[in-house]
Structures are given as structure tokens and as C-alpha cells.
Amino acid sequence: MKLIDITRRAGRSLKHAKARTLLTSLAIGVGAFTITLSLAGGQGGREYTDAIVKSNTNVKEVSATKAVDDSGKIQQYSETSAGQVSAGFGGSGFDPISYDDIAELEKISNVVTVTPNYAPAVNYITTEGQEKYVATISTFSPSVTLKFAAGSVDGDLGKDEIILTEEYAETLGFKTPQDAVGKKVDLGAQSLASSPLNPDKRDFTYTVKGVSSASGLAFRSQGSLLVSTAAAKDMYDYINEGTRAYGQFLLVAVEVNDADNAESVKQAMIKKGYDAQTSDDILGTVNTFINVLLGILLGFGALAVLTSIFGIINTQYISVLERTQQIGLMKALGMSRRDVGRLFKLEAAWIGFLGGALGSGLAILVGTIANPYISDALNLEDIYLLIFSPVQVLIVVVGLMLVSVGAGILPARKASKLDPIEALRTE
Amino acid sequence: MIEIKNITKTYGKKQNAFLALDDVSFDIPTGASVAIIGKSGSGKSTLMHAVSGLDRPETGEIIIDGESILTLKPRAIDKFRSEKMSFIFQSFFIQANETCYDNVSLPLEIAGVPFGERRAKVEAALAAVELTDKLNSRARNLSGGQKQRLAVARAIVNSPQVLFADEPTGNLDSKTGDVIEDLLFGYNKKNNITLIIVTHDPELADKCDIRVEIKDGKLQSVTDQTKKLAK
How many angstroms separate the CA atoms of A332 and B96, rounded? Predict the structure, then answer.
């Protein structure tokens, strides 16, 4: 008997028992629904974190700190490090990175530049006719994605340019973000080496190049103002020169010539006694969390599928019993045992297909409807957290069909072993 | 030509053993109509099952057109049955929720007849039993006589060489029973196929060329009735 004919007969016998077929496949549909949704959530979650890391970190960048002795023992006092640490970092136990270390890091092959994290501690920001407000300064990186409410930056930021956030633009009295673009703002700084009684103060003036808007993706840029690395260095030098902490950095950013080399540079740095982290490491940490969540959801889906397996076995057993005479007749007409077995396995496959298609179809429908609401609730703007990939849905449906065929093996074997003489006995 | 040689079949084991067929031997010429007649439990159905290869007797041989079917592998017997044999049963065994077309098409599908050739054969078979207008009706909507006619159509659709009929008129009134008998004998004579009818109805047995009487698993008599019928 041809496979296509068996498939059609299998489909027809299911059609004749509509309610039973539907109920059995609904059980497997619950599993399909859960699995499809969790796979979509995993996919969306991964793409979401990928977007977060891309917009907050530079894939060509490896951030480095001095390796910390984490043996748990109290460290011995040493003139060279501890004194400086306590001066600059309040005795936090971190070894700072000096300009000598930076020179050493720059020697590693594939390293383009090593930039210290200047983070100049300015006192305030202000503009003409406005009050002074506290401000945190970060350095701008051209490879980190920013969302602009007004203005834009092409390539790197100029030395006399600054990027404000929407909040600062509003606080500083600009009616709209667009108003702020092109205006001048002043950053007030004080040299820490000067006498507290007669402080040396200076204003740094910058032109607003753009206004960044709050985004569901951005962490770093949200609270801080961005200036170019050169401008940050200028302010840092002015503020810290002459103090003991000058030239001591907690963190440096190592720029690599190619993203693919980030990992090898990281290894080279670890050998030299630094702690290094690539953007992949950051992404990996977040993804581990997502994968655990995904695993739990998939587990529930698998449990539902497991339950439905027993449903299929039960239904198919009953079907074999009900159709004893039909099976007997088909065997009398010369249908082979293998074909009889196939008929029942294909019926199970149909049930699996129906359940899989119903479940994942419903999941796609629900997910598509829910996506805008989820994004709205989590303030993700145009990013959707549930991403359905056709390949994954196909794998789910085919996988469930295979599982169903597996469940159908026992009933199919019973059918194929049926004695046609017994089956056709009427008295 | 079907040669039945020393068939013995036992059911059960040891002290419960029951001899269903005891050393049965006879020949059936091609194109003959044969009645296997006997009471309930006489072994007539067992004999039919053995001849059709559904059952495996302990000893003996069934040789159909020179081929000893009991030595064939199960798949080969299945193929043999699907291509050369067909069955009609007392309780029809038609699929009530399938259409007449799908009921009749089943043996063709089992035999692997290509899709394109099936429709003409099914239509011809339904025409032969005068059910052409029921082609797309569900089998459950047919009357008893129509159901058995449908079973006849299913039996003849694949042009078998041997047609087995197990009490074909047992569930029918005499009028519809006669229609079925006429169909069977007509098909037997017209196409020169071997018709083997298992029955306990002496009237039906009288209409066959050969009458094989069986009692308690033993062959009682094989009577050639062709001369009597010719009168």
C-alpha cells in the first residue's frame, strides 16, 4: 500500500472521530503553545539583550581592571600600592591602573588604543541665565548606539562638543530638545590640588551637539552627559593633577582592531595580571539568566507533551479496539502487518501535527497581539520581546509529530499483530 | 486449479486440543463454483481460512496454480491475497462512515494500484452491482442488500482469481439474497473465476458446481453437480 494512501486513510479515520481527535490533539497543543511561546521569548530575550549590550558597550572594546587577590586573606601592607589606593579609592582594595600599566597594555598585539576611564568629577553644569546643577560626565564612544531626541553625531564627538540628556535639556531651560542643539553650556570644575581656602576654579564651555533620549536599551547614557575622550582628559587633568590619585585608574578601555580579536587580547591581558571583560562576557552573563528562564518554561512545555503522550496512547488503543473488524478486513484483503502499523502511526502523526499546528498557531496569534502591550509595559518602545521564527515553529510541529508517532508505536503494534480470523469472527 | 492436500488444523493445546480440520484433501478446478457446506463448528470456515492463507494449518499443502502458498513468507501471502483473492462476509464488513467509493477503492489501494487507474475500476465495479448512483454516499445510508452489493463490488474491483464468500446471504432476506447469489454466480461464469462459498444453506449449495460436505473437521463428500445443474 502506498504511503500517500495510508496517510489519506489515516486522516479520514481521524475526521470520522472529530471530537476525540480534537481533544487528544488539544492536550499536545498545550505543550506546543508553551514551547512555542518560550522559544519566542528566548529568541526575543536574546535579541533584546544583544541590543542592550550593543547600545551600551563596544564590541571592539575590552575593559580591564587589575586582578584582585580574591584569596580572602587580609593583604600585606605595601608602600607602592596600598598608599595610593587609600588616597584615590578610599582603600577599596582595588589596585589602580597607572600610565605605566597602560603603556604595557598598549604593547599587546591587536590593541589599537588604551583609554583610561577619566570620569572627571565636575561640580556642576549650567548655561546662561540658569542655576547650577550637579552633573556626571562620561566619555562618548562612536561605536555605542545612542538614541537622539535632537541633533546627531557623525563619527566621533568634537573636543568642544557635548551631548545632553533630555532631562538636562529640560532642566537647563530649553523648551524642546531641538532648542538646546548649538547652544553653549558650562561645566564648572575645581582643581583638587589647590588650597581649599583659595580654590582654583574654572569653567569649561561646550557646544551642545545633540540631546539623547531615554531608551529601553540604554543604561549608561541615561544619567550622564557625554563628552569626547579628549575633553574628558582635559577636565580630568585640571581637576586631579597634583593629587596622589592622579594617573591612577580603576578601569581602562582597551580598543581592539577587530571584534574577533577581543577574546585573544583578553587572554593576553589576563596573563599579564589584569581582569578583562569583553562585551561577549557581559552578553553571556545576561544570556545565562535568560537561558535558565527559558529552560524552566521549556520544562513545563515538555511536561505537557509528556502528559499528552499518554493521551495519545490511550486514544489509539481504544481506536484499535473499536476498529478490530476494519483491521481484520484490511488484513484479509492482503494489507501487510507493516502497513497496518503504519496506518495507526500515521494517525498518531496527524494528531501530533494537529496539536502542534493548533498550539503554535495560537501561540503566534496570542504573542503577536500581546507584543505591543508587553513592550509598552516594559518601556521597550519598538522592540518586541516575543520573536517567532518560522524555523523554530516548524521544528516544534515536526518534533511533536515525531513524539506522537513514538506514542503511537504501542497501539500500532497491537493493531499489526491482530489475528484477522479472530477479528472477523462474528458469532 | 486449487489443490488442497492433507490439511490438518488443531485449536487449543494438549487435553483441550480440538481437531478443526482432519486430513482434508480435494481439488477445485479453475472457474468452478464450490459450496463448502456443514453445520456450525464443522470446520468449514477454518477450511476457507486455510485455503485463503489467513490461517496456517499444522500439516498439508495448499497449491494455487502451482504455487504452494503455505510455504510463502507472510508478506508474499499478503501480496498474493491482495492481487488474486477477495472476500465477502456475512456481516458485510464495510466501513459505514466511508463513502462507497472509498470502500470499493480499499483493495486497490492495498494492492498498490496507481491512483489514476482506480477511478475507472471502482466505477465499473459499482456499475456491476448497480450502485453507480451511490458512488459518493456514505455506506451507512445503504440498506442491507445494498451493503452486501457494495461488498460484492469491493470483492470484484481488483479482478480476483478466487472469490471467497462466507455465508454471503446469511444476513439477508430471500429476495435480496437471490440478487447477491445472481451477482456472484454471474460474475463466476462470466469471468471464469473460482467462487468458494461457505454456507449451511443447502439451497445455495445446490446451485454450485461442486458441493463439499464437511462434518466435525472431516471431509464427508465432494459431489460434482454440473450434470445435475445442466438438466
Answer: 18
Q: Write out the DSSP string of B181-209.
A: HHHHHHHHHHHT-EEEEEES-HHHHHTSS
pTM of the entire predicted model: 0.74
The class of domain B2-230 in CATH terms is alpha beta
Of A90, A78, A49, A11, the C-alpha closest to A354 is A11
Q: Is A112 helix (H, G, I), strand (E, B) or coil?
A: strand
Chain B residues whose CB is inside 8 A of the A426 CB are 89-91
Please give the helix or strand (H or E) that residue A203 lies within, else none.
strand A201-212
pLDDT tens per residue, range A38-65: 999 888 888 888 877 777 777 778 888 8
Q: What are the residues of chain B with a beta carbon less than 8 Å away from any beta carbon of chain A? A: 40, 49, 52, 54-55, 74-75, 78-83, 85-87, 89-91, 93, 95, 97-98, 102, 106-107, 109-112
Q: How far is A397 from chain B (nearest CA, A)?
A: 29
Residue A277, amino acid: Q
Q: Facing residues of B218 across strands?
A: B215
pLDDT tens readout for residues A63-97: 888 776 655 666 666 555 444 444 444 445 567 88
Q: B182, exposed or middle or buried, with CB in 10 Å at 0-12, 13-18, 19+?
A: exposed
DSSP codes joined into one string, B114-130: -HHHHHHHHHHHHHHTT
Q: What angle do CA A118, A283, A140 make, to 5 degrees?
A: 30
Examine the predicted complex and report whether its ipTM is higher than 0.95. no
